[in-house]
Amino acid sequence: MTRRIRGPAAKRDGDGEYCGGEYRRALRGWLREQKAAYLHLTDRADAERALAGALDDNPFVLRPVNGGAPAKLKAAAVQSRAAAEFLAGRYRDGVSLRLGVQALFEDVVWGEEERSDDAERAWQALGEHLGFASSRPEKLHGTGPDNLWALSAARQAVIELKTGCTTGTIVKKDMDQLGGSVRWLNDHNPEVEAVPVMLHPSRAADAKATAVPGIRVITPERFGQLKGCRDGLRGRARLQSGPVGR
Fold first, then answer.
1. How far apart are CA 41 and CA 209, in angstroms?
2. What is the pTM of this model?
3. Predicted pLDDT of residue 9
4. How far apart are CA 166 and CA 116, in angstroms?
5. Which element (helix H / strand E) includes 199?
6. Rounded CA gap, 134 and 150, in Å?
7. Is pLDDT at 1 greater than 60 in this prediction?
8. CB neighbours of 162 closer than 8 A, spacing ≥ 6?
9. Contact 179, 173 (CB under 8 A)
10. Using N-to-C axis directions, what is the helix angle for 94-106 and 116-129, rounded to 10°?
11. Helix axes 94-106, 79-90, angle to 10 degrees
12. How do 193-199 and 155-161 pair as beta strands?
């Protein structure tokens, strides 16, 4: 196992993000993790298998030695239906929906690096609100993009959030990170087309950076336009495409 299991006090970042059936499944994963802790004392192989099963139910439990293979993200059959079902399961009424979505957008804070994790969590939730299968591969597995949205059965958005940046251009290391995440998806799920997306305060690439082909850049201004459509989640999310300047 990657580190010794110390019991229920072990930190799990996602415990507060589940509700209804999702909460019950997450709880089942946590209980299976506890089972693995006891098995680890007598049979490490059985403990590894139990922990792998726990990971299927709750992606924030501790990981087996192999880290847990990332599951391929599967797009919803009908995006609008998936969005409606998600919202109906998450919110009691229109008021709670409005407040919940408002809080979600408020968690995407620009220019504050310490709020980056909040922004990544909010962006994953935004994908779910819009009816997309959404995950955080880098957070869950230590590799891959900050966010991954299954836009369709054939296309997935590979998303890197640089909301904490204050640079006037997209620097080389950030552009290279997005390119690496595109390659990660190509290796992990070659059947789908990777759509590279970056949230960044600037659309201009640094002179030393090579733009990722097909990159979409969401600036604070673009994000503001999306916020303007938040009431009732009207319309569909449209990731604006265009060339990155120098």
1. 50
2. 0.72
3. 35
4. 13
5. strand 193-199
6. 6
7. no
8. 170, 174, 198, 199, 200, 201
9. no
10. 140
11. 100
12. parallel
Neighbouring-strand partners of residue 204:
245
d(CA 237, CA 208): 31
Instruction: Yes or no: say if 196 and 244 are a contact pair by the CB < 8 Å rule.
Output: no
Identify the bridge partners of residue 161 per DSSP, sorted by sequence position: 199
Q: Which two tokens stand for residue 146?
A: 């900050």
Residue 50 vs residue 173, higher pLDDT: 173
Do the beta carbons of residue 57 and residue 33 sit within 8 Å? Answer: no
DSSP 45-99: HHHHHHHHHHHHH-TTS---TT--PPPPP---SSHHHHHHHHHHHH-SSHHHHHH
Exposure string of 85-114, with b = 16+ CB inside 10 Å and e = fewer, is ebbeebbeeeeebeeebeebeebbebeeee
Q: Quick one: three-class SS letters along 109-162?
A: CCCCHHHHHHHHHHHHHHHHHCCCEEECHHHHHCCCCCEEEECCCCEEEEEEEC
Distance CA 97, CA 172 (A): 39
Distance from C-alpha of 199 to C-alpha of 28, rounded to nearest angstrom: 35
Q: Read off the pLDDT of residues 118-152 as tens digits, 9 standing for 90 and up.
A: 999 999 999 999 999 998 888 877 789 999 999 99
What does residue 134 show for φ and ψ, rounded to 5 degrees?
-140, 140
- Please state the φ and ψ torsions of residue 177, each to the nearest 5 degrees: -65, -40
Identify the pLDDT of residue 68: 57
Lowest mean pLDDT among 80-94, 164-178, 200-214: 80-94
Q: How far is CA 216 from CA 33, 58, 68, 118, 245, in A?
A: 39, 31, 30, 21, 12
Span between the terminal Cα atoms of the chain, in Å: 47
